[in-house]
Amino acid sequence: LILFLFVHENKAKPNEQPKREKFWKRFSSLDKHLKLYLLVAFIFTLGNSSNSFLLMRATDMGFSSTNAILLYFAYNVTAAILSIPFGKLSDKIGKKKLLVSGYIVFALVYIGFAFCPNQGTMIGIFVLYGIYTAMVAGVERAFIAEIAPPDLKGTMLGLHSTVVGIALLPASVIAGLLWDGIGAFASFLFGGSLSLIAAIVLAFGLKKKKI
To answer: 26-80, pLDDT tens digit by residue?
Structure first.
């Protein structure tokens, strides 16, 4: 907070301030790629249940509560170490390609959680989950900022967060119902399937624009 005192924002002069409109008045005229990606984000998030399910799966595999938390620690460390390298990679190859790859990695992670045979494999899956997070977490928002209209970047970032937030609650409810009704594997297969669908839509639905 103290450091904010030393940050100065460039403010436009009164006669230079652009006229702002409510974004929903212009929603129909927004780039179709932007609207499609908001749909992709919703589909993907609907299968991205709470990480608590991952820890529950680890304990089902015989990990103690303490060791399950250590797995989650390994996931976070992996994500933290690789976030900047993957961010640089997205600048080189394009954010869409990295997002598609990240969604595919997520699908592999969830399929791994569904059919994990032993504890050693489970450790590797948590590390792979950290790789997915490094590939996607920051790049999603950068992608939105890149394809949004210049005067609506902040609004579209907020709308993206809203779409993700709306999908998060039913994602965990559905995962819980599948877990109790069919089994743990069903929850992860559902999430992995939606992630693959999101990857396919993103890969082929936005193919006409270089992003």
So the answer is: 556 566 778 889 999 999 999 999 999 999 999 999 999 999 999 999 999 999 9
Q: Give dist(CA 84, CA 88) in Å, integer.
A: 6
Q: Where are the beta strands (DSSP E) in 120-163?
A: none
* Encoded tokens for 188: 């992860």
Q: What is the pTM of this model?
A: 0.85
Burial of 30 per CB tally in 10 Å (0-12, 13-18, 19+): middle
Let me know if 87 is exposed, middle or buried by CB neighbors in 10 A (0-12, 13-18, 19+).
middle
Query: Given the structure tokens 């270089």, which residue do they identify?
Result: 210
- Residue-wise pLDDT for 140-152, tens only, equals 989 988 888 887 8
